[in-house]
Amino acid sequence: MFRQAIVLFNSVLVSVFLLPVTLAAAPADLRANADRMQQHIKALSAFGANADGGVDRIAFSEADLAARAYIRDLMRAAGLSVRMDTAGNIIGRREGSEPDLPVIMFGSHIDSVPGGGNYDGDVGVIGAIEVIQVLQDNSIRTRHPLEVVSFTDEEGGLTGSRAMIGEVDYRMLSVVSHSGMTIGEGIRTVGGDPNRLDLAERKPAELKAFIELHIEQGAFLDAENIDIGVVEGIVGIRWWDVTVEGFANHAGTTPMNRRWDAMVTAAEYILAVNRVATSMQGEQVATVGKIRAMPGAPNVIPGEVVLSLEIRDLSAAKIQRVFDEIRREGKRIADARFTPIRYAEIDVASSPAPTDARMRRIIAAAADELGLSFKFMPSGAGHDAQDMARITPTGMIFVPSAKGISHSPQEFTSAQDMANGASVLLWTVLEIDGGGLD
Ligand SMILES: [Zn+2]
């Protein structure tokens, strides 16, 4: 039963052996319909379609509005009763047989980045509706109420899920989004009420669990030919401005042995960042993505260089260890060149968001029983699930992104891969409904 997992992943054996027996809740032949999902993805891709084969479906744009109407229609066709909260989140509800039980919620988003693809977010919303459709087709009634959610403006800062967990930064509402509107105006445009976002808040007691199906947006599953990623969590992110202080001087008259060249120190520093992140055990990543030299002239030795440092990992303690090691290396380099390095941390407020351990086991068991190979992995990208994880047990299911390409018209996930993910979602929902988290 665990054959595929054992062949592929020695490192996850421990977790695999902790799987809870078998899943009782799902009839053995219950599957998502790949053709139907493909059809829905294709129909959705018409809203905001661009010449490159992708979409420009920025939240709050005309294309977004039209796509939102399409999603509401699909939800109704699957038998859901549809409402919108004050943040503009579209919520389709299916009652359970025990009305007092908390909601099992699942979904994703349908807004895109400028020049985006047809799968990021979309697969999670279409997959969630597919789960409901399969339950309808098979006349399966759950005990818990089920809610499918399509979150507002994921790409612009997790706007909808922030409101749902009651953590809106109200300054954010005046930020002008890619739509040309402020986020506040955008929420009003889709029919929400930016002044009453408190009404969109859900309390932990109302929810049983949240699950998000999403494309990986990276290359691990595709490269290793694995069907399903069981997401361990969404990585935390920390940013710093790093300033190297040198001394600006004439590039022609200052001999090489009398320079305090901030750029040379920065060059060594950048290599050190890469070396530290590569040499430590684990899946941490560290990046210098931006650099500015002052005064920035060909004939002046740079007196100051400011560069960005970003570190991501699933563990906050690990991020700190990576940073400490980089700082130690940086100090060594700075001392040798008499060019001090200063750090100023930028508040990006993105702590690691681990998924629920029981949920991971259920998702892995669902994949396994469906005959799908799977792997435990972190998510390097942000998702609405990271917000939801703060108020309810949360799980995330990844399906492969061809060549790891995302936020691009070349984004691609096959119909079979999408359906595999939706089937795992379906079985996960039924297992939770049957008491898998109790
Ligand atoms: Zn997404």
Structural notes for this entry:
By secondary structure, the chain is α+β, with helices and mostly antiparallel strands. The protein has helices at residues 3-8, 13-17, 34-45, 62-77, 122-137, 159-164, 183-189, 220-224, 262-279, 316-337, 357-369, 384-388, 415-433, and strands at residues 81-84, 90-94, 103-109, 146-151, 207-215, 228-234, 236-245, 249-250, 285-287, 291-294, 300-301, 304-313, 341-350, 353-354, 374-379, 394-399. It has 13 helices and 16 strands. Strands 1, 2, 3, 4, 5, 6, 14, 15 and 16 form a nine-stranded mixed beta sheet that branches. A hairpin with a 5-residue loop joins strand 1 (81-84) and strand 2. The model is unreliable at 1-21 (pLDDT under 50).
Helix and strand arrangement:
Layout: H1 3-8, H2 13-17, H3 34-45, H4 62-77, E1 81-84, E2 90-94, E3 103-109, H5 122-137, E4 146-151, H6 159-164, H7 183-189, E5 207-215, H8 220-224, E6 228-234, E7 236-245, E8 249-250, H9 262-279, E9 285-287, E10 291-294, E11 300-301, E12 304-313, H10 316-337, E13 341-350, E14 353-354, H11 357-369, E15 374-379, H12 384-388, E16 394-399, H13 415-433
Parallel strand pairs: 3-4, 3-5, 5-16, 6-15
Antiparallel strand pairs: 1-2, 2-4, 6-14, 6-16, 7-12, 7-13, 8-11, 9-12, 10-12
Bound molecules: zinc ion (ZN).
What is the share of helical residues?
25-40%
| Total helical segments | 13
What class do helices, strands and sheet pairing give?
alpha+beta
Named once each, the bound ligands are: zinc ion
Q: How many angstroms does the end-to-end distance come to?
A: 24 Å
The shape, in one word, is: elongated
Order of helices and strands: HHHHEEEHEHHEHEEEHEEEEHEEHEHEH
Unreliably modeled segments:
1-21
Q: Work out the strand percent.
A: 15-25%
Mean pLDDT: 93
Summarize the biggest pleated sheet: 9 strands, mixed
Work out the radius of gyration.
24 Å
Number of strands: 16
